[in-house]
Structure formats: C-alpha cells, structure tokens
Amino acid sequence: MILLISTCREKFHELEFVKPIENILNERGLKFFSKHYKNISEKDLKLANKIIICGTSLQDNQFLDDVLEFEWIKNFEKPVLGICSGMQIISLIFGAKLKSKTEIGFFNENFKKEFLSLKETHEVYHLHNNYPALPKNFIKFNSSKIPQAIKHKAKKIYGVLFHPEVRNKKLIEEFLK
C-alpha cells in the first residue's frame, strides 16, 4: 500500500500536486491512500509500504512551520520520495537549511549518474521558491549547483526538487517498483 502525503494548505491545490500522482497509481492498478500531513497516524505509517510526499503551490509554505510533524522520517525504514516541498521537508529533517531562489518552467538537468531511471540530460519542470542545501548523509545526482535529485546514503529516502508528475512520470514508476 502506498501512502501519498499532501503538503497543500488548500484542498484545491491537491488537484495540481496530488491528483496527478493518484492518476499515475490508478493507471498502474496500485493500491494507495492519500492523507494530509496533519492527519498522518502511526497506523498509516505502518500500513504504508512506500510513501510519496507531494509538492504544493509557490505561495503555500505552511509546511515549513510544521516541519517537526515529519520527524518520523528519520526512523522510517521503508522507501520515501519527497517531491519539491517533500524534498525540502526531508532536507530540513536531516539538518539542511533552505535558500531562496525562484525557478518556474522547464529546465534541462544533467544527471551525472542514474537516479530512478533518469540519467544524462532530461527536461524537468521546476516550480519552487526555495531549495535546500545538500543535507549531510545525502548524495546529489545532478550536476547543477542547486540539488535537484538526492538520495540518503544509507536509507531508501529520495528527493526531487522538480515535479516528475508533470514531465518525468517514469521516475515515479521506478520508485514504485
């Protein structure tokens, strides 16, 4: 069972950031459930085999005030993928700081080694105001200065600053294998 975690303050924003991932899972016949981060219970975490922390809109930074709600990630033993705000949350939980930089639109990112099926240059969709410095114990997979794809050195915890639900659905499919 896959748990999708919404970081959206507004339910309406879930149509843009959670629903596309639900559609990918539905198309593949995968079982999942979606919950807002404020409503996650220990039972939900135990039920989940994998977790995807979905992104949110540029104006929605409520999750930054509530980052301690995600402390469970440190001890979680199953795979986690953080998308945009999800990557920011993962980075903050592991001690990184956020820096400001707005990037909107399609960018070519060079993956210096394979990351969940992406390698070499791929066009990805950026939609963020902040990016994390590379957290300790994480590897960066892209060649640009701003970390766009990271993985914990010892755990199956991944993060992408871009939005694979827009242009790189294969990345999500690879994570779910």
Concise synopsis of the structure shown:
The chain has 177 residues and is of the alpha/beta class.
CATH superfamily: Class I glutamine amidotransferase (GATase) domain
Q: Helix-strand pattern, N to C?
A: EHHEHEHEHEEEEEHH
The number of helical segments is 7
Distance between the termini: 12 Å
| Largest sheet features | 7 strands, mixed
What integer is the average pLDDT?
93
Name the helicity range: 10-25%
Shape: globular
- Overall radius of gyration: 15 Å
Secondary structure blueprint with pairings:
Layout: E1 2-6, H1 14-17, H2 19-27, E2 32-36, H3 42-47, E3 50-53, H4 62-65, E4 80-83, H5 85-93, E5 98-115, E6 118-132, E7 138-140, E8 149-152, E9 157-160, H6 164-167, H7 169-176
Parallel strand pairs: 1-2, 1-3, 3-4, 4-9
Antiparallel strand pairs: 5-6, 7-8, 8-9
Describe this structure in words.
It is built from seven helices and nine strands. The mean pLDDT is 93. Helix content is 25%, strand content 35%. It has a seven-stranded mixed sheet with strand order 2-1-3-4-9-8-7, with helices on both faces. A two-stranded antiparallel ribbon has the order 5-6. The protein is α/β, with parallel strands linked by helices and 177 residues long. It has one domain: Class I glutamine amidotransferase (GATase) domain (Rossmann fold). A hairpin with a 2-residue loop joins strand 5 and strand 6.
